[in-house]
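Sorry to interrupt, but I need a hand with the structure work. It will help me judge whether the discrete encoding reads sensibly. Write everything out right here, beneath this request:
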Amino acid sequence: MSQNEQRKNRIQGSRKGRLCGPQSLLLGRLNVAPSDTPFQLPAPRNLKVHLYNAQQALSWEPVSLNNDTRLVVYQVQYKYSTSSTWYDVNRKDSRVDCTNLTGTECNFTANSLSEGFPRHFNITLRLRAKLGDLVSAWVKAPWFEHYRNATIGPPEDIWVTPEEGSLIISFSSPFDVPASVAFFWYYVYYWEKGGSKQVTHRFRSNFITLNDLKPLRVYCFQLKAELFLAKENISRPGHLSNISCSETTVDASTKLQQVILISMGTFLLLSVLVGACLFLVLKYRGLVKYWFHTAPSIPSQIEEYLKDPAQPILDALDKDSSPKDDAWDSVSIVSFPENKQEDILQNTLNQSTDPSHQPVEGGP
């Protein structure tokens, strides 16, 4: 390939970069790089570059051979749009080895910002199949720039803290970006359950407080991140997060009012119940007495007699009596001769009629 053709390809690639839209890059149309080497293997097909947040991967369909059961391996190379030199994707440059892959994917996702392909550079990938000394033609995918072409996911690690008539929402960014190159704007879409949706102004911090919410109401929300490229003044909107819902709490005055209302309601309910019970007792006191009055019981001695009528009733009554339980009064009988009895009776009458034994009025 001549230098003019290479320069022409770089210019076309640069123009394509300026016209690239904000969609996830799924590459189906492939270009086979020209070469003078006779190719004896079919080229891989249906190359796809997957760019989601910080993830970067190239996948393809395997090469199938009818008359050969040996294992086909694949080799991946890359180059920058400002250079015409191709480099192997190996551990030295990209922390992953894609020079002799037996699978059909090359995952070159970087573990940090200092590793992997620079995300603000234009990168072109090409792929070929190998089987011993046999090789296929290089299959080249159009260039991509990660920040321009990646799909931006929602914020992660979302955490909500209910407060008095508010919700505090904290989260982390979809992926790390260098502050000198790009940053994220965030939006929160929220609504009272069953109500209309509202959206906050964009903000850059990793938390936000939704104020002026009704107490003890359930609010739902979604978060969205938007990647903004500072130098190019280009924004890339991301996807909405899953719907999360939380119930707000109440302030101290509202809580006190609730306690008072609950206490008053409980007192009134108990008063009504007690009054109703007293009314029923007074109205149906005869029936209540009948219900709670114990039936008279038969003495045990009579009950035993009823069981055995042949037993004398007096013996049945005295069967369990003990002499020590009986109380007896002692009576003394004094007898006198008949004449002496008359004298004693006469003396008694005389004493009862003697004036000296009468009470004296107006004593001393």
